[in-house]
TrEMBL record, chains A, B:
Protein's organism: Ruminococcus callidus ATCC 27760
InterPro entries referenced in this protein's UniProt entry, alphabetically: HAD-like_SerB (IPR050582), HAD-like_sf (IPR036412), HAD_sf (IPR023214), HSK-PSP (IPR011863)
Protein name: phosphoserine phosphatase
GO CC entries: cytoplasm
Catalysed reactions, semicolon-separated: O-phospho-D-serine + H2O = D-serine + phosphate; O-phospho-L-serine + H2O = L-serine + phosphate
Cofactor, how bound (note): Binds 1 Mg(2+) ion per subunit.
PANTHER family according to UniProt: PHOSPHOSERINE PHOSPHATASE
Annotated signal peptide: none
Lineage of source species: Bacteria, Bacillati, Bacillota, Clostridia, Eubacteriales
Length: 199, 199
């Protein structure tokens, strides 16, 4: 039996932190896992910048409420969910993902959670488990699933490589060059076709 | 972080085999996990009866296409999916569940698969893993989730007991009597309220 594991940001919705960097006018926040493979380091650095600017959960959620899924993402996901089981595995946080999941028709998402003070300051974050994408894919395999995975960034590589089939989607030139053995797609039609072949 | 694990038949949709027993006029097929705790024994017995009557996947799928979710089930599930992550963990088969998942708005379901001959005879079945409900709940716990579970039958008891909170839903008098420590509900409103309290 198969289950498809998809990254969220860059694959189904725009990068949330990039949208917030633009909205807030703080260009440093454009740094993502595409640029910084160490997620813990990246998140602590982001929280420092938020604190410095006096920004909290409310301001980020306001930006997120304006974000739409990438063009064609919902149709792709709808088709995929008709064919097989799908789980979005993301390093984002429940407090960010909620409104986006609504716009995508409530697919299942496995992500993390933020620690938020009563005044809205984001004081920390709780990762669901270590190496969450790989660990989750391994857990799904342990209960009888063959996984098929797709993502765009450094933190997706382990789940892609550990899966029966794995695909880069709208990744960076550098990642595509560094992992020439991984099929890389730019359109939802091509990704859907590749997943169908793997099912 | 929380995830709600729900049984399918008897909780969100009618018992598929009971519906098929009525449609086909074979009353023996009314036997379910409520009556026979050994699922493997139950399934082999069912496949024997199907073979005897010359019935296959096509005939069962025709019955399933006419089954509707239980009254209020979709609204309950929709509300729950707005609040938290939900996975249906069922001992049914992908070939049976598909049309029902469509009617429920494509929630994620973890179930099993049938082995079907080219002529439509169901020749066997492949269980995803042993003790699938408990094993799946344990796997979800291993990736950082607290589980909240609900079901109606013998095969739901282990996942209910292994969870942070667990509830019987529209269960038998015997099971309710044998497990007086498990809160038992009859309405979706009561079940939703109990889950909300546990979140």
């Amino acid at each position: 039996m198969n289950i498809v594991c998809l990254d969220l940001e860059g694959v189904l919705v725009p990068e949330i932190w990039i949208a917030f960097a633009e909205e807030s006018g703080i260009p440093e926040l454009k740094r993502t896992t595409r640029d910084e493979p160490d997620y813990d380091k990246l998140m602590h650095w982001r929280l420092g910048i938020l604190k410095e600017h006096g920004l909290g959960l409310k301001e980020i959620q306001e930006t997120i409420s304006k974000i739409e899924p990438l063009e064609g993402a919902k149709a792709f996901l709808d088709k995929l969910r008709e064919l097989t089981q799908v789980i979005i595995i993301s390093d984002t946080f429940t407090q960010f993902a909620g409104p986006l999941m609504k716009k995508l028709g409530y697919p299942t998402i496995f992500c993390n959670s933020l620690e938020v003070a009563p005044d809205g300051e984001i004081t920390g974050f709780k990762m669901r488990c270590e190496n969450s994408k790989l660990t989750t894919v391994k857990a799904l395999q342990s209960i009888g699933y063959d996984t098929i995975a797709s993502g765009d960034s450094h933190n997706d590589l382990a789940m892609i490589q550990a899966s029966k089939a794995g695909f880069l989607f709208r990744s960076t030139e550098q990642i595509k060059k560094d992992y020439p053995e991984l099929p890389a797609f730019e359109s939802y039609d091509d990704l859907l076709h590749a997943i169908q072949q793997a099912l």
